[in-house]
Amino acid sequence: MADDQPHAGAHPTRRLLRRLMPYALRRRGSLAIVGLAMVADIGLTVLQPWPLKVLVDNVLKDRPLPAALNDVFELLPGPASRDALLTWVVVATLVLFLLSWAVGLMASLASVRFGERVSYDVAGDLFGHLQRLSLRFHLQHGVGSSIRRITGDAGAIATIVQDAMLPAVAAVATVVTMVVIMVQLDLELTLLALGVLPAMALVIRLYSGAMTERSYEQQESEGDLYETLEQTLTGLTVVQTFQGEPAGDRRFAGDTDRVMGATIRMTWAQFRFKLLLGAVTALGTAAVFWVGAQHALDGTLSVGTILVFLAYLGSLYAPLQDVSHSSTTVTEALGSAIRVVEVLDAPADVGDRPGAVG
Length: 358
Hints:
13 helices; ABC transporter transmembrane region fold; mainly alpha
């Protein structure tokens, strides 16, 4: 019946987040470590292109170092020669690599710890609440679907925080940092690079709702398949007694067809989204290549500066693309989150009778 079939639109994203975010906030420690690692990564990203610039402009072409870099170089041990400068360029490259590796490892460990603990917190509450719901609820939704919610859907809020919220904050911080530095290098190239952002926002807006709907449809189809498997296997004695195997096969085939259809529709929506997003960033990169090459030929920018700018361009687009691409994962998580909230918000019908032994 229609009333018994909630859909994605019935649960706005804000309501889902208000309902599930307390689970993430329980694990503030791990969340803080992940956030600090992201800040450190942004700082390292800013520094990483500069050894290459020094190598090209100041070692290979023997141009004088900028005043700020020259002051740092004079403080370092060793003679003030091109060979010494080359040595320090190599050392700086290795140090930045090791620091990036260490920060990435710390972030990965904290992220795994956070995700697992939050998922088990949600799963525990789901399991406890399901035990208190009426038999009518379980007859309507099926035990297999409930198992799917506990074992699969419970990780939704961890996925949303890890793949959407934290990357979005990191993306904003990265974009602001990169833009400030890129403007100092070349204002025109920076404006060209930023020109694609409205188009990216439009693509995300157009496809996010559709992908959430397709994800919810896919999750529901998988829940129906779990229900078929659970009913058939737990009632195997009855199935064999009344020769119900052909009917079970037909039901299983119908469920798998619906899962496959829902998955294909979800995948097709994701493909169109990623294709349009990739086309937008490719156009922006091509424009920067063309104008940047003209500036290098005119002598406005050095080759090393162009390389730094292109590195920052990649660092500008990468987090935006990561956030945009992760929206396909997040829409799947939103579909799972809807199924989690449907259970958590269902009124518990089982209570203790007066005088019952606790």
